[in-house]
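Homework help board

Subject: predicted structure for assignment chain

Our instructor gave us this sequence and asked us to write out the predicted structure in token form, then describe one feature. I got the tokens but I'm not sure how to describe them. Can anyone check?
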Amino acid sequence: QVTLVESGGGLVQPGGSLRLSCTVSGFTLGYYAMGWVRQAPGKEREGVSCFGTDPYEEILYSESVKGRFTMSVDDEKNTVYLQMNNLKPEDTAVYYCATNVIDCPQDLEYDYWGQGTQVTVSS
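My token output:
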């Protein structure tokens, strides 16, 4: 019932920008927590951002992306976005969209995951 479909990954030069999209179905946007998680080769998975169940609380960002990445939602299109600016080689990873019933999980144990999309930052 719950499905997350991602798009927007690709190859970009350092300093460039990409916007990832995650179209959701099976639940109402804003009711569950929504997050972006990435995993680089040889690295542990890292929480990138999370929008919690309280719409009046600010979106959470990891320190490594704060000020460069922006998460947003479009209720009409039922889509979550991750705008990534000033990309760095260390941002290279598979990016996953995920949702959690309770709230943003600190252990990254989200209830549902998208398929992931590859982001490669290289010159």
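Reply (TA_rk): Your tokens look well-formed. For the description, you could write something like this. The mean pLDDT is 94. That's the kind of observation they're looking for.
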